[in-house]
Amino acid sequence: MKDHLLTALGLAADGLPVLPLRKGKIPFGNCRRCAGNACGDRPNMKTPGSCTCPHPCHGWAAATTDRVLINSVAWERAWREAAAVAYHPGGAGLTVVDLDSTDAITWARASLPATRTVTTTRGEHWLYRGTMQSANAVRPGVDIKSLMQYARWLGPGIGVTAALTDAVRALTVKEPSAARRAPQTLSMPLSGQRGQCPHRTPTYIERGIAMAEQRITAAPSAVHATVYRTFLAVLSTHGRCGCLTEAHTARLFTAAQAKGETPRHCTDAWTNAQTTLGL
User: Fold this and answer.
1) Mean pLDDT for the chain?
2) Phi-psi region for residue 272, left (φ > 0), alpha (ψ -120 to 50) or beta?
3) Residue 226, CA distances (Å) to 63, 144, 192, 259 in order
4) Which pLDDT tens digit goes with each residue over 98-149?
5) DSSP 8-class letter at 260
6) What gap in Å lies between CA 16 and CA 258, rounded to an integer?
7) Mean pLDDT over residues 168-185, rounded?
8) How far is CA 4 from CA 63, 64, 201, in A?
9) pLDDT per residue over 14-63, tens digit each?
10) pLDDT one-digit tens code per residue, 253-271
11) Where are the beta strands (DSSP E) in the chain?
């Protein structure tokens, strides 16, 4: 108990939201008060209006930097039974690429930017500065742990923590297979695709483009996936009648690049959306 508690208090002092893990590297279950979400808990726990249970309930959402709470009577039993300490990477502004095999590590060294590395029992954790959506099995032996996830604390690791890049973010994006992808060139207006236009007024497409811009701009994470799906939605509605102009597509690309997308990723997402729809 003492070692895990001291570790947790030290991490919390450094700004890492922590929680205890029981055997099997899993969080402690909800207390009776919170069982079955009777407390009205939501995934964004620890915000005003959500559950304020003092026990280490609700999995990753129990992670905290409150050293008084960590050292409280409510957490005492959990620390007595704890097998490890975990932290919430997203809450600390981090993303962990969890590499669970030698093959996964070999792939990462060839494909991802070098960064701080922590040795695990089966592989390595690669830490990046920035947050994104979490996802399991993004490729063989590779999980992403960031928002709404926890990672076991195994030490500070070695190296300098690099900024989160598109190479890591792209791991959670599901797009058409490589066999279906068209060449990576941008076809801005869809010339030659003019059919009977279903849009009775100019405001129809204007409203659609404005909503698409807003969707991209408001994306809190998974920007690459949001851009692709937004392009797909726009093209499925306006891609065959010839209403899309260079001005419209430029607005979408501008919104995407304002969120950090590169011109190449914009081009790829647009082209892949066209291919998916057979345009």
Assistant:
1) 82
2) alpha
3) 28, 17, 27, 11
4) 999 999 999 999 989 999 999 999 999 999 999 988 888 888 999 999 988 8
5) T
6) 29
7) 57
8) 14, 15, 65
9) 999 999 999 888 998 888 888 776 776 554 444 434 677 888 988 888 89
10) 888 888 888 877 888 888 8
11) 18-22, 26-27, 84-87, 94-99, 116-119, 124-129, 135-139, 142-145, 151-152, 162-163
DSSP designation for 164: P
**DSSP states along 173-205:** -----GGGPPPS----S-TT--------SHHHH
Rounded Cα distance, 196 and 274, in Å: 19
Handedness of CA 176, 181, 184, 187 (dihedral sign): negative
Residue 54 vs residues 2, 29, 72, 218: alpha-carbon distances, Å? 20, 13, 9, 33
Grouping H, G, I as helix, E, B as strand and the rest as coil, residue 41 is coil
* Surface-to-core class of residue 23, CB atoms within 10 Å of its CB (0-12 exposed, 13-18 middle, 19+ buried): exposed
**Nearest by Cα to 271 from 215, 231, 217, 234:** 231
∠ CA(256), CA(257), CA(258), 5° rounding? 90
Extract the runs of DSSP E, i.e. beta strands, from 45-187. 84-87, 94-99, 116-119, 124-129, 135-139, 142-145, 151-152, 162-163
Q: Tell whether pTM > 0.90.
A: no
* Measured distance CA(23)–CA(82) in Å, rounded: 7
Do the Cβ atoms of 27 and 43 come closer than 8 Å?
no
